[in-house]
Recover the amino acids of this structure.
C-alpha cells in the first residue's frame, strides 16, 4: 500500500463524513504438519492476503474488506460502506508521520519457516509419538503437530499513522489418549512463543509426551469426587484460564461499553481481597500473546487491571476508551484483515503472591486440588462459567490424596474473585487461543497456585 493510494481512500471516507479512516493490509503465510497414529495426517501451507477498511462516525463502526488491492476497488469499498452519507466538512489534506517498522520477535535468532520447509518438523513429531507410547500399553493414540505463521501488516490511518509490522509465531501440540478397555481419556500440552523454527529447540518432545502421558494414565485409574460447595486449590499456569474467561472478558471495554459486564461502574472499588493483583501485559518479550503495537497502531503496555483487590481500569481500544472514558491500553486486536479490531486480552494473569502451595493444601480439611484445568464455557455478560478439571486430587485433612477425574468448577467470576484468599509464588503461563467478536487471537493465561475458599464442584 503506497501513501498516494491511502490518501485517496482517506479522501473518499472524509467525503462521506467519516471522522476517522483506517487501512489494515495483511499477508499471512502459515503452515501445519500434524501426526496421528504414527502417520503424517496433515501437511498444509498457505498464504492469505487482504485489506480491511474501517470508518468511524464518532464511535459507530463501519467495516469492510477485500482481496483486491486496486485503488478503484478500495475507493468503491469505502463508498459502499458509507452509502448515502455526505460530509459538509471542507476537504482536508493528509500528512503522514515518519514510517515505523517493528518486529514482534527476535529477528537475529529467527529461522524463517518459509525458507526451511516442513521436513524439519517431522523428527519432533515422531519423537513425541515414540516417547508417549513407551510409557504404557494403555496409551492407544498419540497426536502431535507443529504450527507456524509469519504475518506482514501495513497499518495506515487518516491521522497520519504509517506502521509496518512483522509477526511470527510457532506452537507445538502433543495429545495423548489412553484406555483401560472400557473408557478413554485424552490430555494435551501445547506451548507456543513468538518466533520461528529456532523455538523447536526450546521444547523437548519427550518431555511434553511424558508430562501428558503420565497425567492421562493417572487420571485413567482415578475415581470421582463427590460434588458440592468446597474450597479449591487451583494449580499454576493454565489454571489462569478461569480468570481469563470469567473475569478477563468482562474487563474489556467491548463488554463494558455495552453494559454487558458485571464490572460496569466499579472502577476504584474492591472486587477481591488484598492478595489479588491481576495484569494484562502485551510487552513480555517472546511470550505467545505479546505484540509491540496493537491492531490500531497503539503501543502495547503493561495494564494493571486489579491491584491489591481494587479494580483499576479496563482493557481498551479506540472506540471502547472513548465510550467508557478510560485511557487507551493498546489492547485492540483482530484475527485478520477480515475483522474490525476490538479490545481483547494479550497475556493475562494473576500476579505472584507470597503463599506456598503446601500452606494452601494444609489449610483445607476437605476439598479439591485442581492441578490442571481443561476447557469450559462462560457467559461474559454474567461471568457464569463451567470449567473441566483435567487433573484433580482430593484434599483431605490438609494433604493431597487420591486422584479424581470428571470434576468441574461452576460459578460466577465476580463472585469467585473475593473468595481468593491465598496466592502462591509459583507463577507460570500457558499459551492459548481466544475467540470473540474480532475472531481468534493468540493469548497467554497464567497464575501461581491460588486458593478459592468456596466454589461449586461438580462430580460425576
Amino acid at each position: 500500500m503506497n501513501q498516494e493510494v491511502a490518501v485517496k481512500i482517506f479522501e473518499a471516507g472524509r467525503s462521506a463524513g467519516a471522522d476517522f479512516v483506517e487501512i489494515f493490509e495483511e499477508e499471512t503465510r502459515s503452515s501445519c504438519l500434524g501426526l496421528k497414529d504414527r502417520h503424517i495426517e496433515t501437511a498444509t501451507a498457505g498464504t492469505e492476503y487482504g485489506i480491511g477498511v474501517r470508518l468511524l462516525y464518532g464511535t459507530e463502526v463501519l467495516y469492510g474488506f477485500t482481496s483486491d488491492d486496486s485503488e478503484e476497488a478500495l475507493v468503491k469499498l469505502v463508498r459502499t460502506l458509507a452509502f448515502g452519507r455526505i460530509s459538509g466538512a471542507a476537504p482536508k489534506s493528509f500528512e503522514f508521520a515518519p514510517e515505523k517498522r517493528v518486529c514482534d520477535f527476535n529477528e537475529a535468532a529467527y529461522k524463517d519457516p518459509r525458507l526451511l520447509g516442513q521436513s524439519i518438523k517431522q523428527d519432533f513429531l515422531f519423537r513425541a509419538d515414540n516417547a508417549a507410547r513407551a510409557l504404557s500399553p494403555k496409551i492407544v493414540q498419540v497426536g502431535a503437530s507443529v504450527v507456524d505463521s509469519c504475518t506482514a501488516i501495513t497499518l495506515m490511518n487518516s491521522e497520519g499513522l504509517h506502521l509496518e509490522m512483522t509477526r511470527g509465531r510457532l506452537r507445538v501440540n502433543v495429545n495423548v489418549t489412553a484406555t483401560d478397555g472400557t473408557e478413554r481419556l485424552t490430555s494435551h500440552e501445547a506451548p507456543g512463543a513468538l518466533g520461528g523454527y529456532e523455538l523447536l529447540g526450546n521444547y523437548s518432545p519427550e518431555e511434553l509426551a511424558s508430562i501428558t502421558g503420565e497425567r492421562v494414565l493417572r487420571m485413567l485409574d482415578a475415581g470421582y469426587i463427590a460434588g458440592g460447595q468446597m474450597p479449591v486449590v487451583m494449580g499454576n499456569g493454565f489454571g489462569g484460564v478461569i480468570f481469563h474467561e470469567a473475569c478477563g472478558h468482562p474487563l474489556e471495554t467491548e463488554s463494558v461499553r455495552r453494559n454487558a459486564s458485571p464490572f460496569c461502574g466499579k472502577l476504584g472499588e474492591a472486587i477481591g481481597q488484598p492478595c489479588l493483583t491481576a495484569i494484562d501485559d502485551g510487552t513480555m518479550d517472546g511470550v505467545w500473546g505479546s505484540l509491540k503495537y496493537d491492531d490500531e497502531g497503539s503501543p502495547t503496555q503493561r495494564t494493571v487491571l486489579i491491584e491489591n483487590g481494587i479494580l483499576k481500569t479496563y482493557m481498551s481500544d479506540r472506540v471502547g476508551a472513548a465510550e467508557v472514558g478510560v485511557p487507551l491500553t493498546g489492547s485492540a486486536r483482530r484475527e485478520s484483515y477480515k475483522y474490525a479490531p476490538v479490545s481483547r486480552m494479550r497475556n493475562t494473569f494473576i500476579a505472584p503472591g507470597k503463599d506456598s502451595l503446601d500452606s494452601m493444601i494444609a489449610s483445607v480439611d476437605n476439598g479439591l486440588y485442581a492441578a490442571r484445568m481443561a476447557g469450559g464455557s462462560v457467559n461474559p455478560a454474567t461471568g457464569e462459567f463451567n470449567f473441566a478439571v483435567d487433573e484433580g486430587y482430593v484434599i483431605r485433612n490438609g494433604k493431597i490424596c487420591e486422584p479424581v477425574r470428571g470434576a468441574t468448577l461452576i460459578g460466577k467470576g465476580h463472585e469467585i474473585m473475593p473468595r481468593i484468599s491465598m496466592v502462591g509464588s509459583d507463577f507460570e503461563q500457558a499459551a492459548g487461543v481466544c475467540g470473540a467478536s474480532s475472531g481468534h487471537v493468540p493469548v497467554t493465561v497464567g497464575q501461581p497456585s491460588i486458593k478459592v475458599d468456596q466454589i461449586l464442584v461438580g462430580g460425576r
Q: What stands out?
A: The chain has a mean pLDDT of 95. Residues 3-220 form a domain with the PmbA/TldD fold fold (CATH 3.30.2290.10).
